[in-house]
Amino acid sequence: MKKTLLLVLIALALVLAACAPATASNPNVMPGGNMPMDINQITTATPGSMMMDNPEAAHMMEPITAPNVQPATESEGGQPLEYRVEDGVKVFELTTKAVQWEILDGVTVTAFTYNGTVPGPMIRVTEGDQVRVIVKNELPVPTTIHWHGVEVPNAMDGIPGVTQDPIQPGETFTYEFTAKPAGTFMYHSHYEGDVQVSVGLYAPFIIDPREPEANPPAVDKALMLSEWRVDNGLTYAAMPMGGMEPNYFTINGKSFPATETITVKKGDRVRLRFIGIGQFIHPMHLHGFPFKIVATDGHPVPEAAQLTKDTISVAPGERYDIEFVATETGQWMLHCHILHHTTNDNVEPGGLMLIVNVVE
Ligand SMILES: [Cu+2]
Question: In CATH, which superfamily holds the domain spanning 219-359?
Answer without folding.
Answer: Cupredoxins -  blue copper proteins (2.60.40.420)
